[in-house]
């Protein structure tokens, strides 16, 4: 029987993930350019051009804050993150003390309603079990006053993918539609990215999306 996914992420399995993904902004950009022909920060600028640079932003599942550092490099300053992995949070405190990163779970975000202007995930919803996804989406939307931003693996319907030898750790689906079907949100922008490398199956596609609350 598999252990609880949160136990895996907060143990040696999660520590190995952190070591693999200990990237600088330049390295994150280079990987994105190799995979999709466009850098990570270029994609962020494309999607977040209408978001004020003084917006208060939360990343759910931030690990050591590489995506937050990418945002910082294009002018955002009020950057927060939560992660369930103690090792990642401690490493972020040591190496990126300018970021506001604390321990926290996606299904119980430790902030007040509407505390942030924008809440986002980056390949994190794919690791939430389908039976828990609605709770996590509820928490994301609860904590934002205006924007929801995401970057996740895409499939037309829920599809489980084995992840590093483990079952029940990765699912891809149409995450933008999950938000739009559950909440009164507007789709501002959506784009699909096909991999130009052979590191994943040929049918692997990423979706990046920006949603907005209509009253904002």
UniProtKB/TrEMBL annotation:
The keyword Transferase is annotated on this UniProt entry: yes
Gene3D superfamilies with a match to the protein in the record: Vaccinia Virus protein VP39 (3.40.50.150)
GO molecular function, one term: S-adenosylmethionine-dependent methyltransferase activity
UniProt keyword annotation of Methyltransferase present: yes
InterPro entries (alphabetical): Methyltransf_11, Pseudamin_synth-assoc_MeTrfase, SAM-dependent_MTases_sf
Keyword entries, A-Z: Methyltransferase, Transferase
One of the protein's GO biological processes: methylation
Matches recorded under Pfam families: Methyltransf_11
Record-annotated Methyltransferase type domain positions: 58-144
Cited NCBIfam families: Pse_Me-ase
Listed name of the protein: Methyltransferase type 11
Source organism: Salinigranum rubrum
């Amino acid at each position: 029987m598999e252990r609880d996914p949160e136990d895996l992420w907060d143990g040696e399995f999660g520590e190995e993930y952190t070591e693999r993904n200990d990237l600088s902004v330049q390295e994150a950009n280079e990987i994105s350019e190799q995979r999709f022909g466009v850098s990570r920060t270029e994609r962020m600028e494309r999607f977040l051009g209408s978001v004020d640079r003084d917006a208060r932003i939360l990343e759910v599942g931030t690990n050591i804050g590489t995506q937050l550092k990418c945002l910082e490099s294009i002018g955002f300053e009020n950057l927060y993150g939560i992660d369930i992995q103690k090792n990642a949070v401690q490493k972020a405190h040591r190496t990126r003390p300018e970021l506001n990163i604390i321990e926290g779970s996606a299904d119980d975000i430790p902030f007040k309603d509407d505390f942030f202007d924008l809440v986002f995930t980056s390949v994190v919803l794919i690791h939430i079990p389908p039976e828990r996804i609605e709770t996590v989406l509820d928490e994301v939307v609860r904590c934002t006053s205006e924007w929801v931003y995401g970057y996740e693996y895409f499939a037309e319907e829920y599809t489980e993918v084995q992840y590093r030898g483990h079952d029940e750790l990765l699912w891809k689906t149409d995450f933008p539609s999950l938000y739009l079907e559950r909440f009164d949100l507007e789709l501002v922008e959506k784009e699909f990215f096909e991999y130009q490398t052979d590191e994943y199956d040929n049918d692997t596609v990423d979706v990046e999306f920006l949603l907005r609350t209509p009253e904002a």
